[in-house]
Write a structure and sequence with these properties.
It is a single chain. This protein has 323 residues and is of the alpha/beta class. It has two domains: 170 residues, 3-Layer(aba) Sandwich (Peroxisomal Thiolase, Chain A, domain 1); 143 residues, 3-Layer(aba) Sandwich (Peroxisomal Thiolase, Chain A, domain 1), CATH 3.40.47. Helix content is 32%, strand content 26%. The protein contains ten helices and 13 strands. Strands 1-7-6-4-5 form a five-stranded mixed β-sheet, sandwiched between helices. Helix 4 links the parallel strand 4 and strand 5. Bound molecules: oxa(dethia)-CoA. The site of oxa(dethia)-CoA has 21 residues, from helix 2, helix 6, helix 7 and strand 12.
């Protein structure tokens, strides 16, 4: 059978760092409140004129370097983003042009913070069915552009960044110990719209709008949905939490990471954490965390890696990969 294997990871974070102390000069907040409620200490903010496709392209180039492949090898680009450069065309087509290539398919996926899980699930399906041989899967966001910088309950939580992985078709015996993506699991419940959304858009208000969130409600659903989708993913592969080498979660809040790992019975040392330095980068958070843990040698060949994320919609999902 064919499986898609993650051959390389890449990351890009804008140069500008905004600390909690910086924020406390902008809104009525404090480093103590932000750290104790979220675990966030600082976040990166895109420069004026630096767009989501710029971030995505830099992360993609690093992922291709790590995979030891030229851009010309790519025949599918999927960008998960809720902050595209333009309403259309897809940010993925801008990335394709910036990489200097013109073959294959390129499109965006919108599932907000769960976007990377949706994107990798779709790319994995296209690779396994022979529709693509080498895929770039990118999560890239400039949430700083859709934050209400007067709203302290949301503006302290998010940051900008991009992460990317290269997937490649490989022959596999198909067992849980053979390399590649073992399974993906996606969910949505559109009834929960009002808890996390942007109050604008081309069809409704003809404005870009700002992010609005009922944080407590999102928190409560996040721990339930994330632990249940990881249970579902493990069960589908005949695995248990004890088999996990690395949990790579969406980075929304340190307390969500802790509560989810506790509920699943996963030791905190097996959870990859970037929230303190990146804040919540929406669709970029999982590939940024993957790139960090693969780059510093924590994730190694043969390890079982479980990714999970939840975002507006609600949408949520998980992916199990044997590295
Ligand atoms: O990516 C997926 C989407 N996002 C998430 O998963 C986020 C999920 N939710 C959360 O992470 C948390 O609910 C928050 C971090 C957003 C909030 O934490 P909380 O413990 O639920 O706090 P809260 O909203 O209940 O607010 C507690 C207090 C309020 O004051 P009063 O009403 O108790 O006097 C807020 O006004 O904290 C106040 N507050 C702040 N104070 C200082 C809210 N934001 C701030 C702030 N600085 N930045």
């Amino acid at each position: 059978m064919i499986r898609s294997q993650i051959l390389g990871c890449g990351a890009y974070l804008p140069r500008k760092v905004l600390t909690n102390h910086d924020l406390s000069a902008m809104v009525d907040t404090s480093d103590e409140w932000i750290v104790s409620r979220t675990g966030i200490r600082e976040r990166h903010i895109a420069a004026d004129g630096e767009t989501t496709s710029d971030l995505a392209t830099l992360a993609a180039r690093e992922a291709l370097r790590a995979a030891n492949l030229p851009p010309e090898a790519v025949d599918l680009i999927v960008v998960a983003t809720a902050t595209p450069d333009e309403t259309f065309p897809a940010t993925a087509t801008l990335v394709q042009a910036k990489l200097g290539i013109s073959r294959g398919a390129a499109f965006d996926v919108g599932a907000v913070c769960a976007g990377f899980l949706y994107a990798i699930a779709i790319a994995d399906s296209l690779v396994r069915t022979g529709n693509a041989g080498t895929a770039l899967v990118i999560g890239a966001e400039t949430f700083s552009r859709i934050l209400d910088w007067q709203d302290r309950s949301t503006c302290v939580l998010f940051g900008d960044g991009a992460g990317a992985v290269v997937l490649r078709a490989v022959e596999s015996a198909g067992g849980p110990h053979d390399r590649g993506i073992l399974s993906t699991h996606l969910h949505a419940d559109g009834r929960q719209h009002d808890y996390l959304y942007v109050d604008g858009g081309p069809s409704s208000t003809q404005t870009t709008g700002h992010l609005r969130m009922a944080g407590k409600e999102v928190f409560r659903h996040a721990v339930n949905n994330l632990s249940s989708v990881v249970d579902e993913a493990l069960e589908a592969n005949g695995l248990t939490a004890a088999d996990i080498d690395w949990l790579v979660p969406h980075q929304a809040n340190q307390r969500i990471l802790d509560a989810t790992a506790r509920r699943l019975g996963i030791a905190p040392e097996k959870v990859v954490v970037t929230i303190d330095r990146h804040a919540n980068t929406s669709a970029a958070s999982v590939p940024l965390a993957l790139a960090e843990a693969a780059g510093d040698g924590r994730i190694r060949a043969g390890h079982l890696v479980v990714m999970e994320a939840m975002g507006g919609g609600f949408t949520w999902g998980a992916c199990v990969a044997r590295w």
